[in-house]
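Subject: Sanity check before I submit

Could someone independently write out the structure tokens for this chain? I want to compare against mine line by line before I put it in a report. The sequence has 296 residues.
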Amino acid sequence: MSLKTTLEQWEILQSIVQEGSFAKAAERFHRSQSAISYKVTLLQERLGLPLLAINGRKAELTKEGLALLEQAKPILRSFYALEKRASILKKGDKMRLRMAVDSIFPKHHLFKAMRAFQVQYPSICIDLMEVLRSESTAQLIARQADLYLITWRDDLPEKGKKLIELTFMAVVNEAHPLLKQPRPLTDSALALWPRIELTHISQDAPPKEAVSVADSWTFTTIESAIDAVVHGIGYGWLPIDHIEKQLQSGELVPLPLTYGQTRTTPLYLVIDENSKAFDNEISALAKYLSFYVGLK
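---
Independent answer below. Compare away.
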């Protein structure tokens, strides 16, 4: 069975809808308006369906056109990605996959997954960017990552899959004066000491869930935040995965709070829908991440 339509015809139809007119689509393809109109007319004739309707001066999709174009869009994205990949290979460059990972994500899971991915795809390089929960969605999108491991936010353009729930514990140095206060510790007792927080450099305010504190000392890496608590600068809510050694040695001690010592934060795996050039590779990396997180 031979195909009745071409990718170019669907690409032109999509352009007409995006640009709002045949004339602007013609400019985009560097063709005459009559040539663009002929392509769409031929597409409709071969399908036997009306795909476009003219409303005033604007070309709009019919009900049938909307349904069919939605199905064609993933195919068009795949071919754009295919040509992009061919261009990279032509230049002799290595393909690079960009990951934006929340700094609290457990590194032992991350690097095991990356190593397994490297064995399967030795010719693919990974650019890893660590991000903070305080970064806005716009800041995250600006990083142009193919895959994100981040806390969820409602204005994300892509759907995400919950990968892991991390447990945070309120801790302090073993010799900190807070441990000499009457138990359980109240917010007023905590307010006398700095709270150590992870925040993006452009973030001025502490997270919404923060209790009232006299001073909030902010750091842009999880390692620095942990060291600050270890050295007695203040107390902090830190991911247990990152402080297991300090808890076992007694260097860090859980704070006896009135509202509990732990809380959880879920992290989601989000894939950029435009990263079709890495479809197989991203799927493999996502599979390895899920596997090693599941092993605990």
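---
OP: Matches mine. For the report I'm noting this point. The mean pLDDT is 86.
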